[in-house]
Amino acid sequence: MNVVVLAAGMGKRMHSDLPKVLHRIAGRSMLAHVIDTAKALPDARITVVIGHRGERVREAFPDPSLRWVTQEPQLGTGHAVQQAVAHLDDDVPTLVLYGDVPLTRIDTLRGLSELAAEGSDSARPAGSALAVLTVMMNDPTGYGRIVRSPDGKTLAAIVEEKDATAEQRAIREINTGILVAPTSALKRWLRRLSNNNAQGEYYLTDIVALANADGVPVLATQPSFVWETIGVNSKGQLAELERQAQRNYADALLAAGVTLADPARVDVRGALECGRDVAIDVGCVFEGRVRIDDGASIGPYVVIRNAHIAKGARIEAFTHIDGGADLASPIEIGSGAIVGPYARLRPGARLGSGVHVGNFVEVKNSVVGNDSKANHLTYLGDATIGARVNVGAGTITCNYDGANKHRTTIEDDVHIGSDVQLVAPVTVGAGSTVGAGTTVWKDVPPGTLALNDKTQVAKDGWKRPVKKPKP
């Protein structure tokens, strides 16, 4: 079908330089949510109507399958759809969506499309009905009211609040703006729209009366949840819808068997996939694509971005796992590994099974082999570390010479003492030991002890300096 997404609004109440539809819900822009849902429909031909800072909106979506048109000036929803007419195929119906209504479910759109296809009478071809998505609201203030025919089966009109009578304003069924229309008829109705109303705009809702005048059935269906139809016009509404989106994610995780310490204190800002018996504590944030395998546990206040946590791994409190933004270097954490608390893994970190990365340890662009440990206050950057290696507290790989990065290789069964500096490029051979406080700037042969020559002196009569009195 044709899909027209209206995304031209300025969003004055957002008080932001960012176009309204680019504000984020659950880690993605509102417009991205709408476009992704539309793409789930079969053979959707999507046209986006932009206006305020339209080029910035367009730059955010480099998808060549999208079509773009500009509404300038913005003279109402009917005027916005008029801008897309040249891209609408008469042989398929047209669905109208809104770039600031991000949580509409695909099942709801399918139901609306089916109503438009099946609601025609026998004298008309399938798909010639106009189907409108409506919803019942306890407080309908600000919304267009649904005026039904005397028998209640079809819609007679949609009346905007500023144009409604007192009796019509008492109606609780409101228009969501989302509709499916027969395209050839829609084009005809758009040409006949008038701006003779309180706001001087061309209302898309006026096509309901025009459809009735043409004898086209106007039918309505409602979504399963009111939040599917809620739009965003302020930061307060954005925050409310963010909470709803997160509750939806939490409900889905719980239904799949994930243990959440508190469903109200987990944030998914991308795609989170969990195996069986996964446990997630409070305050965790998941960004990008995250997969957590069976039996793994995530401690409180952990941030994970673009990573795979293998079976039985344990991520302790306040750990930051960041696989980067472009998915080029996702983080891999092996089965049974323990990471944290207060650890930081950066893009390119890959930990084998049974690895321990502990307090205030940072790993970047490094491979840590099976059953190796770095438990305290260590930086491992641009390193290849073998199996069963122990890295002592305070060790760093000196990977940057001021211009270029270099790699450190530590082979299997090496013991690195505390406070060691490994000046890359350097290799520490298998089975060797590096003494505490050593600076390693040459390769260490396998099976040897590496340490710097040092002399310890005890001086008699030495006095500790004292502070001078202040003048």
Explain the overall architecture.
With 471 residues, the protein is of the alpha/beta class. Helix content is 16%, strand content 30%. The protein is built from eight helices and 38 strands. The strands form six sheets. Strands 13, 15, 17, 19, 20, 22, 23, 25, 26, 28, 29, 32 and 35 form a 13-stranded parallel β-sheet that branches. The chain has an eleven-stranded parallel β-sheet with strand order 12-14-16-18-21-24-27-30-33-36-38, covered by helices on one side. A hairpin with a 2-residue loop joins strand 2 and strand 3 (28-29). The protein is elongated. The termini are far apart.
Helix and strand topology:
Layout: E1 2-7, E2 24-25, E3 28-29, H1 30-39, E4 45-50, H2 54-59, E5 67-70, H3 77-82, E6 94-98, H4 106-118, E7 130-136, E8 145-148, E9 155-159, H5 166-169, E10 173-181, H6 183-191, H7 207-213, E11 218-221, H8 235-255, E12 259-260, E13 266-274, E14 279-280, E15 284-292, E16 297-298, E17 303-309, E18 314-315, E19 320-322, E20 331-333, E21 338-339, E22 344-345, E23 350-351, E24 356-359, E25 362-364, E26 367-368, E27 373-376, E28 379-381, E29 383-385, E30 390-391, E31 396-398, E32 408-410, E33 415-416, E34 421-423, E35 426-428, E36 433-434, E37 439-440, E38 449-450
Parallel strand pairs: 1-4, 1-6, 4-5, 7-11, 12-14, 13-15, 14-16, 15-17, 16-18, 17-19, 17-20, 18-21, 19-22, 20-23, 21-24, 22-25, 23-26, 24-27, 25-28, 26-29, 27-30, 29-32, 30-33, 31-34, 32-35, 33-36, 34-37, 36-38
Antiparallel strand pairs: 2-3, 6-10, 7-10, 8-9
